[in-house]
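Hey, I was hoping to borrow your eyes for a little while. I'm sending you its amino acid sequence along with the backbone structure tokens. Take your time with it, there's no hurry, and the full record follows here.
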Amino acid sequence: MWKKSGIVAVVVMLLCVTVGPLAGTEASAGGGISYASLPDEVALYLNDMVFARDEVTLPGEAVRVLLPPGTYPDTLILKENGERVRNYRVTPQPADVYYSQATFRSGNSVSGGGGMAYILTWDSSNSLESRTVSLEYLMSGASWTPTYDMQVSDDVAEDGATEVNLGFFAEIQSSGLTLDGASVYLVAGRVDLSQQINQESQVMMNQYAVGYNETVDLPALGTGSVDMQHVYPLHNISVEPGDRLYANLAGSVLKARRLLVWNAAQDETVNVIYKVTNSTDIPFAQGIVRAYRDGLFLGSDYVETTPVGSEGSITVGHLPDIRVHRTASQEYKTGGDDYYQHTVTLEIHNFSENDLDLKILDRWEVRAWEFEYSLEPEREQDNLLTWTVTVRAGDQLVITYTFRTDA
């Protein structure tokens, strides 16, 4: 199982796939062997970043390894028979050279969008007939996006309990990466590219906060880190540049709570929010959910990261047959201590044929006092006022409250 310790953990956890001697190699014009690296395993992140792993058995003679376009050459980890190669050379080359050799190796037509690739060479101390070469590197050229579709039902109990049919897909987009039956790990996280991704590890804030035996200066926070939420494994994936592949990660009928919410401080409509319980075997990565009912598209909304057993919040639109309006006024008062008298009115009109349970949200000013309410609310954190009310079919509800502030 992959762990949340950044790039190093990803490197450690990728598996090894060995290609037979001379597989995918061709004699080069210089008399050696040319080998095009087509990753056996990759980790795809959300922001066009790929961690690639390729392992191959090569002959003991001189070899040129062709690295794909988009490779960050300074992230390369090269090993020979399990030992780190300390000295090697990386030379830029036209990408067409790589694609030509990759086609030879895979037996399929491999093409790309131009750019620069790299030739990797080194002096081997190995005198055996063959050697196992391991390549690990970061490159751009592919990413993935979580995408969801949700079918909602008209069957809703009085307490809001209902069910939804949720499909969770991974949209894999390749702009320059070629894969041929590779193992793919979809990482719900982004690599921080604000600076060089291969810079030496910096002391992170939480590491500094727990203390050291000796006093040290706090360095600048490092970059190139990964905020990894979860890893979704896929197998035998083949893609070429320009492909867009969809893979189903989960699909299930899930329990949900349907809530009607009016945020009076911001909205002039009542939102319909589904609190969906994730009872699948995998967490839901943050992404866009497209909601449907009776074969019609209702709208899209963002769903937050939702661990197994927790609820994700998805807004699927608003109620057209319930009208709401908030009015606010203030009046200057004198006579001793001057102040402003504020009056807020919340109006709800239910034009539907059903009684509606509604949650109303509003905010009160920090420096206010002398609150009086026609219907007492709950006071919650962040200066939030909440009312849970039932508005009868065809009826109207009005809530009024007043407060004072300094003049």
